[in-house]
Design brief:
CATH topology: Rossmann fold
Helix content: 25-40%
Order of helices and strands: EEHEEEHEHEHEHH
Shape: globular
Largest sheet: 8 strands, mixed
Bound molecules: guanosine-5'-diphosphate, magnesium ion
CATH class: Alpha Beta
CATH superfamily: P-loop containing nucleotide triphosphate hydrolases
Length: 227
């Protein structure tokens, strides 16, 4: 739920996915990329990471990014802890989310964990995914060998009713699947996945009163690019 206070707009973006899929790494990399050069967003303050000794996330991570085009717009970026036992906590962290980036672990032997995580997201989000909350997918770790294909991920999204056929009003809001590498220095598609999710939250708010706009004129899309 986009919040407005003091003429500032706060948008909440959540990285969701199974344990060790690369969520914390993706936000870390987003920090590095956007603090070095002038991009559409810049980090404000440090990334707050609450981790166990092993380095895996305990509770969540949180970072704040500010739009460089409209400095009244802020993105509160969260990641969830992926382990099964943190399920109740994930529900809480989900509350008020405006956009979700699902980080799929591309490793074949992680298939079941990915599926469980996606199903949990579905059950927590109810009917809101895509209809009110834009969904973007990172197919992560494509630098490794024998990773899952985009086709396999798309088929899973179809099975989970997160994919609309051509001709359907929501077809244009189907999740984009970005093959990604979250680790530096070879990082790939981390920034694009984030900005696309941010752009869609802007479009939903501006042209759909918080829901997926039914039709979008090309000019609208350009307007929101300036966010
Ligand atoms: N090879 C490779 N390893 C990655 C990639 N993204 C994350 N990792 C590694 O996967 C492990 C778990 O990452 P982390 O971000 O902590 O996962 P999280 O539990 O989803 O937050 C770490 O050792 C990362 O370095 C990637 O794109 N490629
Ligand atoms: Mg983590």
């Amino acid at each position: 739920m986009v919040r407005v206070s003091d003429n500032k707009v706060f948008i909440k973006i959540l990285y969701w996915g199974s344990a060790a899929s690369g969520k914390t790494t993706a936000v870390d990399t987003l920090y590095h990329i956007t603090e070095k050069e002038k991009m559409d967003v810049r980090p404000t303050g440090n990334l707050v990471k609450i981790a166990m000794a092993s380095g895996s996330t305990l509770y969540f991570d949180r970072g704040v990014f500010q739009s460089t085009k409209k400095d009244s717009i802020f993105f509160h970026v969260y990641t969830v802890a992926g382990q099964a036992r943190f399920s109740p906590l994930r529900k809480k962290i989900f509350m008020g989310t405006d956009g979700v980036i699902f980080v799929f672990d591309g490793q074949r032997d992680r298939w079941e964990d990915n599926v469980d995580s996606l199903k949990e997201l579905r059950s927590v989000a109810g009917e809101d995914l895509i209809t009110r909350i834009p969904l973007i997918v990172m197919l992560n770790k494509v630098d490794l060998e024998n990773v899952l294909t985009m086709q396999e991920v798309e088929e899973l999204l179809q099975q989970e009713n997160l994919w609309y056929p051509p001709g359907h009003d929501l077809n244009m809001w189907n999740p984009i699947i970005y093959p990604s590498i979250a680790i530096m220095p070879s990082a790939q598609n981390v920034y694009r996945a984030f900005t696309e999710c941010a752009r869609r939250t802007g479009l939903y708010q501006t042209f759909g009163q918080g829901a997926a706009p039914k039709k979008l004129k090309p000019t609208m899309s350009k307007e929101v690019k300036d966010l």
